[in-house]
Each structure stands twice: as C-alpha cells, then as structure tokens.
Amino acid sequence: MIRTFRQHTIRPQQELTGKLWNFTPLQGERAGETFPVPTPSCWETYPGFGLYRGEGRYETRFAGSGNLRIECKGVSHTATVLLDGEQIATHYNAYTAFCALAKDVPEGEHTLAIVADNRFSEQSALHVPNDYMSYGGISRPVVLEQVGDAFIEYVHVAPAKTDGVWHAHVRACVHALKSAPILLRVRIAEEELIFDVQSLPEGERIFEGDMRFSDVTAWSPEAPVLYTVTATLEREGVPFDDLIDRFGFREVAVSGKYILLNGAPITIKGVCRHEDHPQYGCTLPFAAMAYDLALIRDLGANSVRTSHYPNDEVFLDLCDELGILVWEENHARGLSLEQMQNPNFERQALEVTREMVTQHYNHPSIYIWGILNECASDSEYGKFCYQEQFACIRALDRSRPRSFASCKFKTDICFGLPEVVSYNIYPKWYHDTPAKEYLADLYDWVQRETEGAGKPFLVTEIGAGGLYGYRSPYATKWSEEFQAKTLREQLGVVLSFEDCAGVYVWQFCDIRISEEWWGGRPRTMNNKGIVDEYRRPKLCYEVVKELFHTF
Asked: Can you give the residue ranges of the Glycoside hydrolase family 2 catalytic domain (predicted)?
C-alpha cells in the first residue's frame, strides 16, 4: 500500500512490492542461497534470519520503457539500487524515501535489484546499536512510475489565516529532463494557480504563488477535514503529468507557554510509538497501523510521537484522517558527543531532516518537528549540530514550531534554539525523587537559568518498565503493579502541572532492541509499553486511559 489515497490519475504508477521477490543473503551461513520472500518486509521475520546483520539482495522483474522513476519508500538501512545490473541510486537511512531515475529505458522485461545493508560501522552514524532495533530489508513499498520529459516532484501548501480569511502559499517543484515549454496548473477547492513557461530549463525549478479561499473548513482533531491539491503539467492544452496530495487548513503557533492550534491552546496527551511488531518487524501492514491508532484513541490520547525517526507515510495519512496530532522527529537517539563527532553524522542527520520535512510537509497532523532525541545537548559541539539542523528545518518550513527531547538534567545549553522546550523524565524509575518534586525543580531551573524561559514546556517521555504477565503483591520493579502505580503518580503530576503544555507516555508498545543493548533490558526488549509487543494491554493501560479521560 503506497498511500491511503490515489496520487496520480495521469502519470502511470504501479507498486512493485506487495508480492514475492527473490532474496539472497550475501554473508553468513546461507550466503548465496536464493529464495522467495514477501515484500515489503524485514529479513529478521524470515526463518533463520532473526539476528542477521549483513547485506541482502532483493530482485524482481517488471515490464516498462521510457523514463522510469523508481521510488523506494524505505530500505534499511543502506540501499544500492541496480536496473539491469547497472547501479542507478544509493541511499542511507531506513526511514525516508528516495528515488532513482532511469532515462530512455528500452521496451521489454527488466531486472530490478536492491541490495540492503543493515550492518553497523563507522559509515553509519545514525543506525547504531541502540534501544530499538535497526532491521534489514525493503521495509516500505517500492513504486515504479513512467514520466515524460518533465514531472512534478512535490507541491507544498502552507495555509494561514489572516483577518478571518484562509490563504495558502503554494510551492511546487518541477523536474525537467530536457528544456521544453510547459504549463503548470495547481488547483485547490475552487481556486487555481497557473504558471506558463515558454522554455523550462533542464533540472529542478520552484514555482511559488498565493491563493485565497472564501469558504473552507479548518482541520482539527475534532473535525479532521482534508483538502486535495492537484497539480498538472500541460503542453498545447494536453495534460501529461500530475501529482495529487492532501493537506488541511490549520495553523500552529506558539504564544508564551502555550502551543496554539487554530488560535486556541492545546494540551498534548500522547504516546511515543516505535514502528515495531514481533510478526512484522518495522514493516507494519495497514491493518496493524490502524489497530495501533484504535488503541491510542481508546486511551483518550490526541497525539503520537514518532520515536525516533520519520514514520511510514501511510501511518501519517491515517493520523491526518483521524485527527491525531503528530510530533515527527528525525533519526537520532541517545548519541554521545563522541558519536556525534563521527565525520558522517552531521551530513547524514541533515539529509534525513531535509527528506523528512520535504516528504511529509503537507500532513496537517504534524504540528511540530523534533530532532536529536537525548543527544549531546550539553556540549558546545552538540549545540552546533542542533543549531544546524534547526536551521535546516526553518529553511524548509516556517509554519511549524521545532523542539528536541532532552534528558540533560540542569545541564542542557540548547533551549535558546527551539520554540518548545521538551524533557524526558523518569521519576520513580531511574531515580527515587517524587515526580512532583522533580518536575517542579526542573521547570524552575528552565525558567531561571536557561534561554527556554517563557516557552511552552512538554514532557516528551515518562513511564516505567513492566513485564506483561509478571504480577507481584509487593508491586516490585518490572511488575505490572509497579508500572501502573508509577504511571499513576507520574501522569497525575504532569497533567495537573498548569505550566506544562502536555505529556507523552513512554511508550505505546514493548519493542525489540539491539542485541548489544541487552543489559538492563529483560527479553532484549524495551518493556515500558503500556501494551506488550502483541498489543495486549497491561494493568497500566487502564490507568493511562482513566487519567487521559479525566484531564
């Protein structure tokens, strides 16, 4: 499944995944053996490959000709793409899409091969042994498109309300393979923008314009109304390319300690969620995504934090449709100063940030961009990295606030950079300080000693571990009773704290972690989920539900 809606009616498009491909591991005991596997998928779900780290070659055949655009929605974590044996693209990072363009492909049957590599090395600064699993494989769909001598890369719509009237700034990117005249038409509701170019030069060109709307409905969690933007390329009155996307008329702003949605303060009641499932790895099918969101809505939550990477766009489509607010963040978790000084780190982090914002710009559910969870924000070099990545976001999108989740208790030096201050805290789990005392002390320090004073304050992680089915009359650590008791205290304090703009529970479901992180993690899993890995609710599920519905 590519998206929850159709993106083209003119441009020919077909999904190449959703069927069996041939898979060949290139290392290990079964190196060179070829067998059919479903795609998209993670190879850790194949029998005998649960711990495989290495390269895997995926291969399929298709019929096509002309200029072919091959879009990979996600390959974990380093990809090499070959068409008929010739390399046409490489890409790093599992969680963003990339494209390969092959010109003038002759008619007939062709072989597409994708080599995925999930090994850890100095070449990979973001995918490292961590408190979640870096899977291997073609983890998201692969799409084949046939394009002409020009095609539309993206159309961004930035809505804003002025004097009670909705406007939209439109920014469209057109890619020309050769110089030729084109007419670009952009339609939203009953309004239209037209750009007539007598000679579009080869390469990418940006077209920008403004539109005014007299009768549209705002998007909100209570009424998630979506609109379609349709862009077409024409020549001599005949359309030859198109791109359809969705967006919502909504504004996000920051005013003092409040986050505003359409001018009104919002209180975030959310969960952090990893893309992880024991049957599917990080390749959750549509039904599993929808079930996760059904549970999240049952809790009374209004937001999801995409921990700790950009999510599958189908999941974001569902959040748009259901009115679930999304904190989406780039890919980096818990990296030390030494890890951030990897010569590949800043380049790779900036690449995933650019791809995340560009590809997911139109989702109205995304109300904030996050970066660099629990990284070295207490160091000068770390501050430089945060500054560069925030600047990257601001250059691409000025319509949303920015933040990062810090764990640097009274040592963080980066709160002058984002619009929203965010902290991950675990009172009564990693330390014995009562939640009320810990939160008040931390908030007071932010106001007195940092450049985050006066900004909205979010608690982006709070929680405790609990093993599903482990019950203790003494409510010992790792028992469901302890987890439920701790979350009741933590959440009650945070939701009662009038200066806090909201909270995210860590985490929605138990997840698999890297084998190297086994210490302190029973079952080699992060067990802080309020449901287990199979989505079975723990005792704390009802506690969170009660508190979210009460406040």
From this structure: 252-548
